[in-house]
Write a structure and sequence with these properties.
The protein is α+β, with helices and mostly antiparallel strands. It has one domain: RutC-like (60s Ribosomal Protein L30, Chain: A, 2-Layer Sandwich), CATH 3.30.1330. It is globular and about 40 Å long. 32% of the residues are buried.
């Protein structure tokens, strides 16, 4: 099965040598962040950590939807925060969007993030049988 690259919003990811998603062997790999790719600044609507978390998850939702998946098809999430003090607000927004459980396996790390973003998320989803081509 060939690899299929996904960019449902037609965002200018290519100029940075990346793509927001890919499908391979029944898995979808997707990333999301609240970043304006033209300015490399956080999106203006990402005022709070909760806003930023919701926007990152919405981008992931859009990417995996292009492969026939929903947030319920996500099995693994890796989350990156630029400061540990954001963890509680992040968790609350994350569980609001992803809930109710069961939740995917998740790791959360504190790291440097592109631009002035404070939250970045990547996810792995399993393409449902009915959506496989």
């Amino acid at each position: 099965m060939p690899i299929q690259y996904l960019n449902p919003r037609n965002d200018p990811y290519e100029k940075y040598g990346l793509n927001p998603g890919a499908v391979a062997n029944g898995f979808v790999f997707a990333g999301g962040m609240a970043l304006d790719l033209n300015t490399l600044k956080r999106l203006p609507e990402a005022v709070t950590i909760a806003d930023e978390t919701r926007l990152a998850l919405k981008e992931i939702e859009d990417v995996i939807a292009a492969a026939g998946c929903t947030l319920r098809d996500i099995v693994k999430v890796t989350c990156y925060l630029s400061d540990d003090s954001y963890r509680r607000e992040f968790w609350e927004a994350y569980t609001e969007v992803m809930g109710p459980g069961p939740y995917p396996a998740r790791c959360t790390f504190v790291v440097g993030i592109a631009g002035d973003c404070r939250v970045e998320i990547d996810a792995i989803a399993v393409v449902p049988e009915k959506a496989r081509k």
